[in-house]
Amino acid sequence: MATTKNKLTLTVRREVARKARAIGRARGQSVSRMFEEWVMRMSESEDPLLAMAGLWKDRDITLQDLRAKAWSRS
Fold this sequence. Notes:
Layout: H1 14-27, H2 31-44, H3 48-51, H4 63-73
């Protein structure tokens, strides 16, 4: 079944756009696809915060890895 796609233009800070493209490259996904998945998760959850819980699902990453990565950037 083919799905119809619609164009959506977002206005975000340049830094956000750069980060989104970098994350997309790292994940092998387009920014559009990541946004689409995020919106669908948010719309299916009664509590938007709970929708974020699946963000790291099926990823081999620990809290220590996240902290190390965050601290290395500052």
